[in-house]
Design goal:
Shape: globular
Structural class: alpha/beta
Strand content: 15-25%
Strand order of the largest sheet: 2-6-3
Largest sheet: 3 strands, mixed
C-alpha cells in the first residue's frame, strides 16, 4: 500500500498536458490556477462535479461596483509571492465516480471558462448567460471534439490512467485520496460608492 494518491497533483499534470496539446486551451497559464478538491457530503451524482472560480472582475479588474459599494476579492498568494487568479475545484467523490470520458469533458469544460486573456475573469459569451452562452448543451457540444483530439494526440496514457478508476477503486489501490484545498475567498467591501464620489469632489 502506498502513502496515498495525490489527486490535485495528478489533475495539475493532466491539465498542463491538455493545455500544451490543445490549441484552444493554449491561452491558459496554469501557474495562475490553484487546483483544489472539495469533499461532497454524499456520493450522489446530483450536484457539481467541478467549478472554476475567478478572482478578478470583468477585464481582469481588481475591484468592481455592486449595489452601491465597491468590492474586491482577497489576494490568494502563492508561496513564491505570485497570485492565483483562479481556483479550479473538483468535488469528490462525485467527480471521480463519473464515467471516464465524462471526467475528461468536465475538465475541458472548466478550463474553457478561463478568459482568453487569463486575467482572472471568465470567458464571457454574448447573451444573458455570459458563462455558457445561449445554451450549455451547445457550449459542451463544441468542446467534445477536443477530447478526441487529446486522446489521439499520443498523450501519455499514464497521465489520465487514474481517471479510469472511481473514487472507491483509487482508495482501494492507494489507501487514501488527498490533495490541496483552497477555500473560495469571499468578496470584501472596500467602501460605499457614494464615499468614492465625495472623495473625488
Amino acid at each position: 500500500m502506498t502513502n496515498g494518491f495525490d489527486f490535485t497533483a495528478a489533475i495539475r499534470r493532466l491539465c498542463a498536458d491538455m493545455i500544451a496539446r490543445l490549441r484552444p486551451l493554449s491561452h491558459i497559464d496554469l501557474t495562475k490556477v490553484a487546483i483544489s478538491f472539495r469533499q461532497t457530503r454524499t456520493a450522489s451524482r446530483h450536484g457539481l462535479y467541478a467549478s472554476v472560480t475567478p478572482l478578478r472582475f470583468p477585464g481582469g479588474a481588481i475591484e468592481a461596483e455592486r449595489r452601491g459599494w465597491r468590492w474586491r476579492y482577497p489576494r490568494l498568494v502563492r508561496p513564491d509571492g505570485r497570485e492565483w487568479l483562479y481556483i479550479l475545484s473538483f468535488y469528490l467523490p462525485r467527480f471521480l465516480d463519473l464515467p471516464f470520458r465524462e471526467k475528461l469533458e468536465t475538465i475541458v469544460h472548466e478550463l474553457w471558462h478561463i478568459s482568453p486573456d487569463c486575467d482572472g475573469d471568465l470567458r464571457r459569451h454574448q447573451g444573458r448567460c455570459y458563462a455558457h452562452g445561449h445554451s450549455q448543451r451547445s457550449y459542451d457540444a463544441q468542446l467534445k471534439p477536443l477530447i478526441d483530439d487529446y486522446l489521439q494526440s499520443a498523450a501519455p496514457a499514464d497521465l489520465y490512467a487514474f481517471l479510469h478508476d472511481d473514487f472507491a477503486a483509487l482508495v482501494k489501490r492507494h489507501g487514501r485520496v488527498f490533495g490541496q484545498r483552497f477555500r473560495v475567498p469571499k468578496l470584501q467591501a472596500v467602501e460605499p460608492t457614494a464615499a468614492v464620489h465625495r472623495t473625488a469632489e
